[in-house]
């Protein structure tokens, strides 16, 4: 019975359309969105999937080890050229509020005995990125949460400052819970709940385009091109897309926002990293009104 069942499934799969129909943009995007329901893909997923053994960790699909022997090439790139790593799976929490209030509460979860803090002058100006270890509030040196990196947005006209804290996805829930506790942040009244990547009805219609037969296929393809689905990454591997992503304190006005998968993060290693960045990035011309 199992053998007959397997043969029957193969016959059903063979009824799908040719590769040309499956490789159409509208069908590819719908298929990619469907496959990201459980494990989120990075922007460089397809490039890694062709060259690496993929693993599912922390709610993401990540490249673990290369399929070819490229260790010497990677070592050569790090020592002589440039090696790029995709760290977009790292989680980002954004804190917005008055600088004094932010520093007052953040001092409770770090210590000057371990090195830099959020109050370091070079980091507070926004010129450099800092790194430190976080602890539970007023519990140093016990109950360590984990290492994080942070960067301040340079001062502007407004009194409010913005602070971005980057952490490993395995540490996100504990650190987020501690930040919400020290700032006394609760969920805002008006919560924007994003729509899922593609609804089941939409997916069925899009898959019907792939599985349809005869002349109807061309007619449905033309209608589908008018509303081409967009590749969306809503939420991340550590948060359900229907959960809130922003919290505010009614007493201090501090806002905590979850910016995971909204800001891409790459790491360049090698002596030619700066020259590649200067050749790739161009300064924008400021226009004053």
UniProtKB/TrEMBL annotation:
GO terms for biological process: tRNA 5'-leader removal. Residues 4-97 form the Pop1 N-terminal domain. GO terms for cellular component: nucleolar ribonuclease P complex; ribonuclease MRP complex. It comes from the Eukaryota. InterPro entries: Pop1, Pop1_N. PANTHER family: RIBONUCLEASES P/MRP PROTEIN SUBUNIT POP1 (PTHR22731), RIBONUCLEASES P_MRP PROTEIN SUBUNIT POP1 (PTHR22731:SF3). This is POP1 protein. It comes from Rissa tridactyla.
